[in-house]
Amino acid sequence: MTLSSIIADVRGNERTLTVYDPTNPDDVSELERHFEVQNVEVNEATVPEGPENFVVLQDDGEFLAAADLDTLRRAVTFESGLVEADDFGTTQVPEILKHVDDTTFTAYGKRRMILASREIEERAWRTGGGELHAGFQRLSLFRDQWDLYTRIADRGVHVHAYGLPDWEPPETGWLTVHDEDAAEVRDSWFVVFESGDASDCALLAEEREPNEFAGFWTYDDAVLGDVLGHLRSAYS
Fold first, then answer.
1. How many CA atoms lie within 13 A of 187 on its CB side?
2. Which of 3, 78, 163, 172 has CB atoms 3.0–4.6 Å from 139's, for a disulfide?
């Protein structure tokens, strides 16, 4: 088993994102651009009575989440501050993004990967406890996230950081460093949170082109087990 083979085995389920009575067509276009590389179909609808500019996510007709259109648009266009965040107490991931799970994607750029990572990092911060496994490709990239991960660790989360050994992190009790000179570590971006409850989730992708990633994120226990099982076996 490899990280690449796990990605190949995961298949996404198509979901539907319905935008009700949008007042600005450009907002819908922004959502379409964001979700076009995922198995999420975006469409529009009208209701006789009710609020304008709201969005509903469904899975085969089953309600998953709803959000204000502007809030979701700001998040997916990186206006909400999630990409630059270093304090989760001042940011919030829209609930809809938390329900686009078991989803495969292609052609994610670096900023979208950061946004997806923030969802899992925030979940670890809010839950507290457990383990957060993060692959930075190179440990020098972990240095740029040090303050953020310190805040996560302050909540009782133990962090495992993976990457090529081009920087030596400070020794601390909340951190286990896996300085691995391995091809799949260099080429993969992953964030996996395990706490033993419904908060568990994972993002795993591989870099197919410079700063362009393909992979998935999931809340499925079996897939999480495969990812963590491989990491623990290969890089104990």
1. 13
2. 163
Average pLDDT, the chain: 86
Give the domain range for residue 28: 3-234
Helix (H, G, I), strand (E, B) or coil at 148: helix
What is the average per-residue pLDDT within 18-37? 87
* CA 51/CA 236 separation, integer angstroms: 52
Count of other CB atoms within 10 angstroms of residue 76: 19
For residues 196 and 201, give the distance between their C-alpha atoms in angstroms, rounded to a whole number: 10
**Domain holding 77: CATH number?**
3.30.870.10
Number of structural domains the chain divides into: 1
Retrieve residue 183's tokens: 């091809």
At 24 the three-state DSSP class reads: coil
Q: Give the residue, 27 or 229, on which the prediction is more confident.
A: 229
- DSSP characters for 76-96? HTT-SSTTT-S-GGG----HH
Of 85, 149, 71, residue with least CA distance to 115: 85
Query: What is d(CA 184, CA 162) in angstroms, rounded to the nearest whole number?
Result: 11
Distance CA 11, CA 105 (A): 10
